Amino acid sequence: MADLAPSLAERLLPSSNIAARVIAILALACAMSSALAACGDDEAECAGDDSGDVSLGQGVDLRLPSGGSAAMAQADPNADPPWLDLSISPASEADMEAADDLQIDDSFTVAGTTYVVVGICEDSAYLDREDGAA
Fold first, then answer.
1. Mean pLDDT on 17-41
2. What's the whole-model pTM score?
3. Fewer beta carbons under 10 A from the terminal one: N or C of the chain?
């Protein structure tokens, strides 16, 4: 790579000014560094599917399609196995119950409907209704 930088600098700045060449090389190095950083994965870490019938955001109390509600308390998609803690309620926030250490393919029932955990991310979780209804 060091062999390419002076050649490129010479093409960009044909003068013999060393300072200008050094600046061009540094600018090229910064541009390449930024481009490599942009190649990184900016999305949250996830285990399982990153979609489902229901998407829960961390700390958000979500009214479920069948009634009742669920809220994602915390999760670790990088654990072995990945896990998720939810607060679930069949009716109101006052009736919230903990559903701790849920893993991919675990299920729980709220308001007569069974939900299956299909994805666990750092800041969200994805559930499918067991009957397949959306």
1. 55
2. 0.64
3. N
